[in-house]
UniProtKB/TrEMBL annotation:
Pfam hit, one: SAND
SUPFAM superfamilies: SAND domain-like
Species assigned in the record: Artemia franciscana
InterPro entries, per database record: SAND-like_dom_sf, SAND_dom
Protein name as it appears in the record: SAND domain-containing protein
Keywords (A to Z) from UniProt: Nucleus, Transcription, Transcription regulation
Domain of life: Eukaryota
Record PANTHER family: GLUCOCORTICOID MODULATORY ELEMENT-BINDING PROTEIN, STERILE ALPHA MOTIF DOMAIN-CONTAINING 11
GO molecular function annotations of the record: DNA binding; metal ion binding
Annotated ranges, domain SAND: 47-118
Cell wall biogenesis/degradation keyword on record: no
């Protein structure tokens, strides 16, 4: 899976991304977000390179449905939920995927708590949330 190289980074799209995520937490500005995340863009989706243990995958933020329910991580040709990715990474005894899965050395828990990332609300009715609810 080829991601857009950093050399062709679209700062206008990045500004749109930054503004969208700053709405949830107005104290964050573009420079603060740059300290926490390094997004890439794939087919109109915002994607974060994530790691857990020695495994690396790609988290598609549009598929981050209600926390661990959505299959939002693309790893070795398969879509996985955060819990499944954590399990495959040898962290099956860890109790919280948000602490185990990291982006640029920052845990998902930190990014979610700071309001930089958000998961879909419980009442969300988007296609990704409906699909993840059907899989349960």
């Amino acid at each position: 899976m080829a991601l857009i190289p950093r050399a062709t980074f679209d700062w206008d799209l990045y500004d749109h991304f930054a503004k969208a995520f700053c709405l949830a937490n107005p104290k964050f500005v573009r420079s603060a977000i740059e300290d926490y995340i390094r997004p890439v863009f794939q087919h109109g989706d915002i994607v974060l390179e994530v790691e857990c243990g020695s495994n690396n995958g790609y988290m598609y933020l549009s598929k981050l449905c209600q926390g661990s329910r959505g299959a939002c991580i693309y790893y070795q040709g398969s879509w996985l939920t955060p819990n499944e990715f954590q399990f495959l990474s040898g962290r099956e005894t860890a109790k919280d995927w948000k602490r185990s899965i990291r982006h640029c050395g920052k845990s998902m828990k930190l990014l979610l708590n700071k309001g930089i990332l958000t998961s879909h609300p419980i009442a969300c009715d988007c296609n990704s949330c409906r699909n993840s609810a059907r899989m349960e």
